[in-house]
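User: what does the whole thing look like in 3D?
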Amino acid sequence: MPTTVKAYAATSATEPLTPFEVERRDVGPKDVKIDIAFAGICHSDIHTARSEWGPAAYPVVVGHEIAGTVAEVGSEVTKFAVGDRVGVGCMVDSCGECKNCTAGNEQFCLEGNVGTYNSVGKDGQPTHGGYSQSIVVTEGFVLRIPEGIELDEAAPLLCAGITTYSPLRHWGAGPGKKVAVVGLGGLGHMAVKIAAAMGAEVTVLSQSLKKQEDGLRLGATHYYATSDDSTFEDLKGSFDLIVNTVSAQLDFDKFLSLLDVNGAMVNVGLPEDPISLQMFSVVMGNRSFAGSNIGGIAETQEMLDFCAEHHIGSDVETIPAEKINEAYERVLASDVRYRFVIDTATL
Ligand code: NAP
Ligand code: ZN
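Assistant: Here's the predicted 3D structure for the full assembly of 347 residues, as structure tokens:
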């Protein structure tokens, strides 16, 4: 029998999120049922709930930073047992057979991965995410949360953690490399922690100096305000890598001018409108202008293990469900330190 569980859903692009009940499928042979303890609030949840990336399929329960414990396992599940501490990120399934899936890039499944929410599952039903009390996920898309990371601090790793870890690894952040992180929000604060743990010299480029103390505590060595034009003069040509986590438009030519020869600016922020830049900004200096989308399942587990080894969790502000709409406004006002996490017991 499918079970009905408490959740919070967006019902239109303009209404606040409201209490909702969501049906979870029966536990199949390869399925893991998870009692969700905490769900992070990612800016992508807001983009989706408000149909900023195209029309959402309402009602939709968002949330793709899920941490909890295993409540039940199917008869063929081998990797998990009841009581295990686990997480789920942005995907809950993929074909498993195409060249991208077999290379560990399930996020680029040629048949399209099944998103944790606002997607359609293999059973033909709409998928609903983490702002709910439980979820049923095929075992290949369930991650193990290592001991040493509390579940609330682990939840945001499932999106903000992997989305920043993957490009930092790919572009070689490490000793001797100068890495700038643009935007000190949910993704940005994880980028700072992870890049510092990898051994890079980290600079935060924030709109103001309001969060400077935090940035330095999180692992940055330098902190500059992008509202101050002298920042762009002082830092010209200085970075090997810039990770842009900003959810809005930037003056990309100005940021590209901060790259050293052969430097790369990797974008993970996803503003809704097209951007523009001068081709000279990349051609001069052999610069790269790149993007990065979450990470595959194996890499997500690698990130969780890396974070446990380096004692990295997210800095969270835990809220009850009734504060979700207020939290959304605070995220939009860049007033988050540094991830809101919903205590799902309050749903
Ligand atoms: P967030 O917590 O809101 O952080 C974004 C930060 O960007 C803010 O804290 C702020 O930092 C800065 N910012 C906001 N508006 C700005 C503006 N108008 N100009 C300059 N800077 C601004 O959001 P998040 O959850 O980290 O997500 C960031 C973006 O990444 C979103 O677009 C999200 O959808 C996207 N995302 C992408 C992936 C992927 O796979 N590529 C995965 C997850 C999320 P300061 O106050 O320090 O300036
Ligand atoms: Zn996310």
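In plain terms: The first strand starts at residue 3 and ends at 9. The chain is about 25% helix and 25% strand.
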